[in-house]
Amino acid sequence: MAGTDSTQPETENAPDSAPAVILVRPQLGENIGMCCRAMLNNGLHDLRLVQPRDGWPSDKARAAASGADRVVDNAQVFDTTAEAVADLQRVFAATARPRDSVQPVMTPREAAPVIHAAAAGGVKSGVLFGPEAKGLANEDIVMADTIIAAPLNPAFKSLNLAQAVFCVGYEWYQAGLDMDAWRATASTREAVPATKQDLLHMFKHLEDELDKCGFLLPPEKRPTMVLNIRTMFQRAQLTDQEVRTMRGVISGLTRKHLRGKE
Question: Contact 190/61 with Cβ under 8 angstroms?
Fold first, then answer.
């Protein structure tokens, strides 16, 4: 479960604003599990299944969820799409083929702030996703107020079920994310730029060793070579930790060279 950190808050979006994810007649338990994983990646918890072909609960779904057990455990199963959306006030249908529908069409990015705004007004939303093989049927799409269609390669728009859920969930999550707060917690340690004194000490250390091994020859070219080396490192904008690492590299190479002469 790479990327999982139980010490962090589970989501930075208000759970009450999250849309329900309705999988209509999903076929494989593994695909449902991967959808659960995609949902929890983006702070979504409300999973509704309409006639899952292989039944529910599913050990294969739990294994494929890779730790998104909260979504798996709380999934609800319905006999019809109408029952699954009965308590919702705004329904979106994710489909690559709008067919002859008269509903407005939005991209996932356009739909995301609409869902957030609806939630702010107390309106609960949900997104329909169709079965893996053929997508949503017309009788499912007609229950939606809006169609969500991702602007993909027109010659190949095919997404697997989890990709489709992630695409919509990601845009919803980003639309409600405080990016400044996210950046503040994204790094485990703030990088501290090296001081010029530390850089100068590193330069001298490196140049002393390069003189000893004969790299900075002939003497008339030494000033230009030193300038080029210093400019290269200055351009890298090294941190204090990187300077310490570089000093260690120089010392390590020197010790190896000396051992080789013994």
Answer: no
